[in-house]
User: Fold these one by one.
Assistant:
Number 1:
Amino acid sequence: MKRRKFISKTTLSTIGIISLWSFDKEIFNNPNIKITLTPWSLIRSGYGGIDPLNIDLLDFPQVAKSLGFDHIDHEMFHFPPNLDQHYINSINNAMELAGVKSAIMLTGGKGDIGDKDPKKRKDAIATYMYWIDIASKLNCKAVRNVCGDYITIPHQEKLNYAIEGVRKLGKYAASKGLDLLIENHNGYSSDPNWMIALMKGVNLKNVGILGDFTNWILERNPDTFYPDPYKGFKLLGPYIRAISAKSESFDKKGEETTTDFKRMFSILKGAPDFTYAGVEFFGNTISRNQGSINTRKLIEKVLSES
């Protein structure tokens, strides 16, 4: 694979990272909150797709470090097909050289672990077991998955299938020492009460929620949103272990214009297991590098002021 270099000239000395280890325990129950960079912030195509930045996955750890991140997430769609141990070793070596660590493996989109069809559900679970194995080899702490984002069967019926699928996948993740995090990802999963019922039904210590700031579409055509995302986060808080801090644009003061980060992070004080704050910049009006830096700085700011 030809490696294309896109290493930012931004240095750690000019970024001014705020040490998260200094946070008072009274601010958050977990004082060691880690800010991670999600690949989609910089790489917006799947493997083999055309992306104008052309960042090679093996360069991503160094790019992330140059933007001020010590932890990175991974996205299954960015990996090459026929993944082998040599490539996994190459990624681990790249992370070691850059001085960054793995956080979460983001999976989903290749089958539904809550599918009504038993065979499809079984096949989806097998697919994500494979990615749990990859996540383990990359020293990730958790795997993210989705279910309930397509409304094709009644609420309770979908919940029953999702509980079965999430429990099976969660048990496998536990055998590898990993958490399984289900994301609010539209559809039933954007109904906090449905997600809470899912967590209670699964009832595994290593299963929790990855809360996304903006995925709140309950129905399509026309789009119908959960009315209050801040209330949604408050309800999900006891189960949230990681977040996707989505960002798109910023005002002159560095505040994100679509989500009140200060309010969101204040709500997250009620999330005792919250550990990973994932930067997911998807805007286009400024560079992806700058958007990622702005989001990181904003998270650091609201954490220090909480």
Note: The mean pLDDT is 90.
Number 2:
Amino acid sequence: MTTNEYEGKPNKQTALICLIFFAISFVIYFLTKETDPTPYNNFIRLADAFLNGRLYLTEDAPWLELVHLENKHYVVPPPMPAILSLPAVAIWGPLTNQTLISIFFGSLNVSLAYLIARTITQNRKIQIWTTAMFGFGTIHWWVAVSGSVWTFSQTISVTFLLVAILLTLYKNHSFLVGLSLGASYWSRLTTILSLPFFLIYTHERWYKPSNAKALFRKIDIKFLFFLVLGIGLFIALNAIYNFARFGTPFDISYYLIPDIFDEPEYQKGIFDITYIPRHLNIIFLKFPAILEMPPYIIPNWNGLAIWITTPAFIYAFRAGIKNKLALGCWISIILIALVNFSHGTWGFAQFGYRFAVDFYPFLFLLTIKGIGDEIKWHHKILILIGIVVNLWGVLMIQEFGWMKLHEFGI
């Protein structure tokens, strides 16, 4: 069977497979989650504030990353994860376990990954293997089961980004694509930089070559208008949200974190191109930490190279660049990476390099494309290695905890 970028709408069998992937993922994620609910439950606290008619927290928690203004304490990241948590918080209150919500959406992401794989290839084995890779052979596993404010944001942003990709592949209305991308943006701001993928992949739907000299006559304004409208609604909501909090439509919350510019990582501001090498060092060169005592090898406190956590991503480079899917993916990856790589920090305590999760959906697409029409023994081996590495990472984190790793000086 040959590679096909659009297989058709899901059927009952597809729904069953999605349900199986969700169930398996949820069980495994639940069994490997942090022992206690994450203390960094900013979004549960924010959801509780929303339910009580507030945009801020009334009580400070010194271990949380908050902005403090006039005895009001504001959550820094965009609020979409809190909005999705509203039903649970309405039922269980401020004691709602944020990690469990993260696991739910992380499991949903695995099912969405399967639906996407199904649109890229008709080969059922490739669909199954690459979905397993996404769910258990990447650091998406650790991100989903961590459930902290930082990783929860990424889990939700991936959910909406996968939905946007899926709607695009299924050739749904551009407004729905825009809404999904906008929702991803309101979870993790950098994902809006993936817009080139959606423009490039759909160019045949909005650009119609003709003999007309005027460019606008070659462009389907309606398609682009609804795409931008969907994204623009969330940009507007974010501006209103920030104006209500800080009196400005701009997202300045990160700049208002107390004493942030006293930190050595931000000596040239929050973003600067001179920070790029420190990120490249993590994503390509960081190895596990070696100890002289059991268990001898543990995840490095600062991160781990992407080719160690997911070696199968190497097949992304076989996807080429002359097809619209690959070109859109690579441009989006580069744009998101440039911004993330310019950030003063590299993710701090983490398994792998968590900033890369922002563009993992596109690496996933490229990997499927790069594997081709048949999954071979070496594809399976690299996927299995990734699964083993991520299982090791998640279990080691549960066994030692980040603080104990820190005690080793890692």
Note: The two ends are 48 Å apart (CA to CA).
Number 3:
Amino acid sequence: MDTQTYQAVVIGAGPGGYPCAIRLAQLGIKTLCIEKEYWGGVCLNVGCIPSKALITAGKKVKELGELDQMGIELTGSWSVDMAKLQAWKSKVVGRLTGGVQTLFKANGVDKMFGTARIVRAGLVEVETADGPVQVNAEHIVIATGSRPIEIPGFSFADDRVLDSTKALDLMEIPKRIVVIGGGYIGLELGQMLQKVGSEVTVVEMQDQVLPGFDPDVIRIVKRKLKKSGIKVHLEARAQGWEEGEDGAVVTVATKKGEQQITADKILVTVGRRPNSEGFADLGLEMERGHIVVDKQLKTNVAGIYAIGDVATGIMLAHKATHEGEICAEVIAGHRAYNDARTVPAVVFTDPEIATAGMQEHEAKAAGYEVKVGRFPWTANGRAITMNDTDGFVKTVLDASDDRVLGVTICGPHASDLISEAALAVEMDAEAKDIGLTIHPHPTMGEALMESAKAALGEAVHIVNR
């Protein structure tokens, strides 16, 4: 058997693994990155990037229908060519995944395609197309990510049933689709499909869509869902489906009794589970399927680390990247720790949602007395000129010292604006730090400034409460 030796081996080339491998090489550590499926992982290939490409296309379609408000008239009809749209999406994905391999080469990271198994600390066995390879390494980083959860009665092997990966590869727009799960993935993809022509029904077990988000945000999203014609069944459970004369017939248990919903496709988006099964025999401490790590991303087994979705904590790509870079610093002998105060979250629904730090209800539940400033997009000049005024910016302060506990943004470009809020939370800023910072006009960013001032009763473009 071929045997190779490295200082560090990273298993997985997703948004946690590939930055970890690159940073290790930059720090002078001889590194091998092993990947069994996609360079760039789920995020770049069948997750974050392709979904946002398609969501952008859906948004463009929606904007076409609103152009007449600005006096722009379309003389002809429009249509969506899914083959061309998928080809464009694939081009976007290929550009980014190709970039990962270019960065590996530029930084001196070795790569291997195959399925890795950790035999014990210090030893990895890889099944490759050319046969098994043994790799010795003092440091092993597990970055194997996660996969969609499959629920009973809805097998992803069936053509009618989609996970997020299959949904992103549709070559035809389904006339009718049932989305099981009203969380962020279900609503993102459901709204995208509605915009390009699908009739969408959402089935959610809990009493609200987007569980855990600010109730003010949920109200706006629910209003948008209703306005667009998306039907939502709350406190409902999908029990199974069977083939009918006109498509799949989904049986749903609701408060009003059983209902049958006919659909061409069924999209299951009830969450993701970590890819941690292959490491059960190593003696790693586990928590609900996640590998437990400390602030240096170390597991309880010396020489083995875990980052990203497979490790404890929130399952987000940027969290994985941050952990990967910290892990590399630790392996290189630096005094590095994952001590972030916040991991910002973004939801690409319509309207977009983004949070950094605590939301209002979370701060109150944690025992804080709070001050809250809310600035609506209807009072922001740039939002008005864009004809996109649904939502608000909400800043939550600790009433005892006016420190920024968190910011919630609902509305246009929330995903781009939240980074300023994340910095404010990370640096333990006070509201005045944001309020006294001159923001250019006319921009969306002014709403963060006005929201911070509103929390202090000092806003000038809305009436202070």
Note: The chain has a mean pLDDT of 97.
Number 4:
Amino acid sequence: MNLSDWLQRQWYEAKPPMALVPLSAMFRVVVAIRRLAYRKQWKQSEHLSVPVIVVGNLTVGGTGKTPLTIWLADFLTRAGYKPGIVSRGYGGRKHDKPVAVFSTSDPLEVGDEPVLIAKRTACPVYVFPRRAEAARALLANTDCDILIADDGLQHYALARDVEIAVVDGERRFGNGQCLPAGPLREPVNRLAEIDLVVCRGVALANEYPLTLTLSEEAVNLTDQTLTRRLSELIGIQPLYAVAGIGNPGRFFTGLKQMGLSFEERAFPDHHAFTTEDLDFGENATILMTEKDAVKCRGFANQRFWTVPLQGEMPPAFGEALLQKLKVKHHGQKTA
């Protein structure tokens, strides 16, 4: 068992390791001081000329932020906005200035999630660790009139008008401890300050449910016009399912619910795939997530298939978002 697997088990399946609890207490203090610094304006948040929506979570790992960001971009476009998206570009190469991301960009250069977002939304996407600089570059080169900051909840250097937090409905907040004894980036009481709380799974009374559904059709990596119903793969062997995401088990479970039987291959989140990773024999059929697929298209063959994931939000969420955008004065919320 590697360190990542051990930590996940401690965070979600066991009591917090006592040796790490003092470090978690120190982490909470640092988080509180940092937020206070922005509240008191000892540290400055940059206000932009357009509304800013940040999407993030309190816990480490995947909760559905990327599917929600894609849904938001589509929803805002249909509502008459021209959205742009900024992201850190995690997993990509370090750059000395903001970089534009396209559907054809190299994930090793700009990160896998930004490439997937660019591919699915056709919206302008820029990456840079300092999101405010990425946003300025995006606004200078496009006609966007609203920004979505993907995974930007803790990036207080960028002022925001609406905050959206995504919660894992199955695992919630694990043992309730902050890093490193638990999975929390910020204490749970931070949710009381969030404008809209979205839950992937069973939502509580004050949360909006995010429904993520695997497509019933797989798309070929070498020819996107070529599709195949997953029901046609029932009984096909050898069949492999590959996932290098925050919670690979969700992908595997979704495929099993469609009647498929396969060998599971889980990789770390944002894993940089090689041909050797996926060398399962010349007759193997391989299914993978969209996030993994953008990193494999350079060496994929016709045995590689991706299964799209579609996110849906209830109408009430969209109405609440538009109302908050309407009534909030730009720059009112900073941290």
Note: The longest helix spans residues 21-39.
